[in-house]
Each structure stands twice: as structure tokens, then as C-alpha cells.
């Protein structure tokens, strides 16, 4: 006759199952986190003095010329310039195809700043968009962007009635989405007027960067690289949500934009 498990043995079996279930969940969560932060983990395995080759632009200006142009940084005659360091900011270069009207297709290249989460508009003066970083933090959806793009087209502000008219569909659903955007501080609603909650908002309708110079290969040390605040997966998710279901990302690659860091010495030498 088979021996029946005692209550103690049964409880032990349940505890073991619960332990293994928790372990599997933790491994899954850890694997997902590692995937989302893959680029950051890869950077951590190198020492600060490790050398590597990156894609970047040639520096268009020398440090001496830069300092001559930036004298306004010296608040008084007693202030002086200290060291000037050449650093490299990580950007994601995306080759995409998309459609604005569903009738014609376009192809373009987008350069996305991984330090501030904004789209670079051109490589002449490196103007950036204004507003995508907040959308990244709030994990804005495609439906959110339909409202934000409608506001952007109309100068950044519009009444709820006009938004509903522009978008069509169920007014109550659209108003509910507006309230959701308000809770996440992406819009402000005042006297029935909805406004994008960004100073001088510039949310582009097309994922395009005007690139006016070629990329070159350059050997650098890792301590000259700025840390990325956003991952490649973050930007890819944002681009898919922001520019419609017809957008397809053909390819991506990591590039770096050269910037100068200028140290200003106080009169006391600090």
C-alpha cells in the first residue's frame, strides 16, 4: 500500500514549487532588464582607458577658436578658461521608410540623441526637437502621438472640440486620452484649451535629419564617451509609436557626435 504524504511533506513540496516559480520569474525579469539595457551593460565591461574605433564627424572647429568665440562664459576679467576636453555623445542613426498619407512612401535617415532623447534636426547647427524626451519618459503610445501631432500642426494648442473634430471617432474616448496625457504631464488643459506641456515644443511629424557631413572612423578611449541615458530599444519603440504603423526601421547603428567640454576657473582658482 502506498504511503500517503504527511501534512509536513505536502507543505514542503508546495514550498519547493513556490521557490522554483519565484526563481523562474526572477530569471525572466533579469533577462528582460538585460535586453533593455544591453548597450549599457556592454559599456560596463570596458575600462575607462580601453581603446576602440567609433563612427563620428570630424571636429569643425579647434579648441583655440572655440575659446575665442565663447568669451561670454567668463563672467568677470578674473575668471579664466581651464582645460578643454573633446567628448563624444552617443547617437542612434536610423534608416527608415514611412508614409504620411498612406499613398506615397518616403525614405530618410534619423539621428537620435541618446543623451537627451531628442531628434537631431540637422548637422549644421545640431538643433534638436523639443518634446520627444518627455514622451520617452511617459512611454507615449501611438494614440497619444495622434493627439500630440494634431496639437503640433496647430501651433501647440487647440480646443478639445477641435481635436475631436480633427481626429474623428468617439469624442468621449479622445477626451479620456487627453485626460490621460494631462495626468502624465504631456499636456496642460486650461479653459478647454489643450496645450503641449513643453517650452517651445517642436515635435516633428517626419523622422528626418538633414545630414550635411560624412561620418569618419576615429580611435578613442572609453573615458571620452558620454553615458547614454536611453537605450536603442527605447528609441526604436518611440519611433514606431510616433510616426505611424507604416513606418519600418530598415537598419540602425551607433554613432558619436563630438562636443567640447570647457572648464571655467573661478577667481579663487576653483
Could you walk me through the main structural features you see in this protein, from its secondary elements to its overall organization?
By secondary structure, the protein is of the alpha+beta class. The N and C termini lie far apart (86 Å). The protein has 8 helices and 9 strands. 35% of the residues lie in helices and 26% in strands. It is globular, with a radius of gyration of 25 Å. The strands form 3 sheets. The protein has a 4-stranded antiparallel beta sheet, with helices on one face. The protein has a 3-stranded antiparallel beta sheet with strand order 5-7-6. Strands 1-8 form a two-stranded antiparallel sheet.
Keywords:
single chain; 270 residues; alpha+beta; three-stranded antiparallel beta sheet; 35% helix; 26% strand
Amino acid at each position: 500500500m502506498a504511503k500517503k504524504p504527511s501534512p509536513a511533506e505536502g507543505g514542503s513540496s508546495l514550498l519547493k514549487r513556490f521557490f522554483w516559480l519565484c526563481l523562474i520569474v526572477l530569471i525572466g525579469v533579469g533577462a528582460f532588464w538585460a535586453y533593455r539595457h544591453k548597450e549599457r551593460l556592454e559599456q560596463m565591461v570596458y575600462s575607462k582607458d580601453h581603446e576602440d574605433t567609433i563612427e563620428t564627424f570630424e571636429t569643425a572647429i579647434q579648441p583655440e577658436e572655440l575659446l575665442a568665440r565663447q568669451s561670454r562664459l567668463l563672467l568677470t576679467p578674473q575668471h579664466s578658461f581651464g582645460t578643454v576636453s573633446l567628448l563624444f555623445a552617443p547617437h542612434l542613426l536610423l534608416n527608415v521608410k514611412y508614409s504620411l498619407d498612406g499613398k506615397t512612401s518616403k525614405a530618410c535617415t534619423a539621428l537620435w540623441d541618446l543623451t537627451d532623447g531628442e531628434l537631431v534636426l540637422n548637422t549644421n547647427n545640431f538643433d534638436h526637437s523639443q518634446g520627444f524626451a518627455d514622451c520617452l519618459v511617459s512611454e507615449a503610445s501611438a494614440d497619444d502621438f495622434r493627439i500630440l501631432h494634431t496639437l503640433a500642426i496647430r501651433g501647440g494648442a487647440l480646443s478639445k472640440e477641435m481635436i475631436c473634430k480633427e481626429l474623428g471617432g468617439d469624442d468621449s474616448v479622445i477626451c479620456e486620452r487627453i485626460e490621460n496625457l494631462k495626468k502624465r504631464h504631456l499636456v496642460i488643459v486650461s479653459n478647454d484649451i489643450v496645450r503641449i506641456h513643453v517650452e517651445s515644443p517642436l515635435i516633428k511629424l517626419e523622422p528626418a535629419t538633414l545630414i550635411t557631413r560624412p561620418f569618419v572612423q576615429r580611435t578613442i578611449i572609453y573615458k571620452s564617451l558620454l553615458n547614454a541615458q536611453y537605450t536603442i530599444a527605447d528609441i526604436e519603440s518611440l519611433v514606431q509609436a510616433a510616426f505611424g504603423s507604416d513606418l519600418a526601421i530598415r537598419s540602425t547603428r551607433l554613432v558619436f557626435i563630438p562636443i567640447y567640454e570647457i572648464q571655467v576657473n573661478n577667481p579663487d582658482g576653483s
